[in-house]
Each structure stands twice: as C-alpha cells, then as structure tokens.
Amino acid sequence: MRILSAILTLGLASIGIGVGPAGALADNGAVASPASVQQQDSVLEVLYDDGSGRKPVQLTLDQLRELPRSGFRTTTVWTEGEQHFEGVWLKDLVAHLGVSGGNLELSALNEYRVEIPVDDIDTSEALIAYLRNGEPMSVRDKGPLWMVFPYDRHPKFKTETTFALSIWQLDRITLLK
C-alpha cells in the first residue's frame, strides 16, 4: 500500500496534479514536486515494539535535516561512478530518539527488512542518506532514504553482510527488545 501511495503521489505530481501532504489532491491546482512532497510528509516512521509503551514517531525530511548532517563520497555496487551521500549518521538518529539498547529492525517500502543490534550502531558508520549528489532521492532512485556505508573506506564495508544492510526506500524503524 505504501509503495502504491508513493508511486501514485509521484505520478500525479509528474502529470501536473497537485498532491497535498496527506496525499489529497490540491484544490488550488498547484503542482507539488516530489521534493516538496518528501519535505512535508512523514518519510520515516519509528515504532517501539520493546515493551516501553512509547508512542510511534513520524519524522519528516525537514526534521531529519535538523539533526547533525554528515556525508561522504563512495562508489556502490548499485550505482555508476562515485556518489556523494549526505544525511544523518544512524548513531545520531538513534541518540535523538533516545534508544539505548535492543535491536533495530529497518524496513523498506517493499517490506525488505534488516536487523541491527543497537550496540553495534556506534561503530557501523551507517548513514541514513537523504541526498545523493546534492539532490533528494526519489523512490525510483532508492529514496527518499537510503542507509549507506562508506564502501570504499575499508574492505569490511565491501561484504555481503554490509550490502544486505544497505536498505533503500527506508520508511520504518522498529525498536525491538
């Protein structure tokens, strides 16, 4: 359903139909670009399935941009040439959310899921990228969020395990026990 919603939103915007923050058609006829839709809508849902009773959090692209920003240049097995990724370190996002233990399950629009122990995040060098080569990433281009690693920095990042953790179209993080 989320994929259909994202495709529909982007598709309507590309043919000149304005789409509001909740997916409603704009009644003023204004065209919402994919970038503006991404900035206004929630791009990341955070759920707490750890027994803490914490309420879900919805983060917009603008809220992610308020967190400490970082980036690096690297090549990937999914793109051509060197790419410049910018975003927030996963460890900074986890600290912002007040998470200190357990496991994180990261999910993509297509329900692809990976799990990371919170204790491993500080040394993971995982970046939740929202810009690639200075531009927001569309769903078609693995966005709006893509967890990437500095693959060229060290051989430990060029492993099947790291590649499998490199989740694109990231839309949900769940804290597990």
Question: What does the model show?
Answer:
The structure is a single chain. This protein has 177 residues and is an alpha+beta fold. Helix content is 21%, strand content 30%. It has helices at 2-14, 34-40, 61-65, 90-96, 160-165; strands at residues 42-49, 57-60, 70-74, 83-89, 103-108, 113-117, 127-132, 135-136, 146-148, 170-176. Strands 2-1-10-5-6 form a 5-stranded mixed sheet. A hairpin with a 4-residue loop joins strand 5 and strand 6. 28% of the residues are buried. It comes from Thalassovita aquimarina. This is Molybdopterin-dependent oxidoreductase.
Query: What is the C-level CATH assignment of the largest domain?
Result: Alpha Beta
Q: End-to-end span in angstroms?
A: 27 Å
CATH architecture of the largest domain: Alpha-Beta Complex
| Sheet with the most strands: spatial strand order | 2-1-10-5-6
The CATH superfamily of the largest domain bears the name Oxidoreductase, molybdopterin-binding domain
Number of domains: 2
Model regions low in confidence, pLDDT < 50 over at least 5 residues: 1-39
Overall morphology:
globular
Measured as a percent range, the helix fraction is 10-25%
| Secondary-structure element series | HHEEHEEHEEEEEHE
- For the report, how would you describe the main beta sheet? 5 strands, mixed
Radius of gyration: 16 Å
CATH fold naming of the largest domain: Sulfite Oxidase, Chain A, domain 2
The total beta strand count reads 10
Judged by helices, strands and strand pairing, the structural class is alpha+beta
Per DSSP, the total helix count is 5
Beta percentage is: 25-35%
Q: How would you state the average pLDDT, rounded?
A: 83
Domain Oxidoreductase molybdopterin-binding: 50-150
Organism: Thalassovita aquimarina
Pfam families: Oxidored_molyb
Protein name: Molybdopterin-dependent oxidoreductase
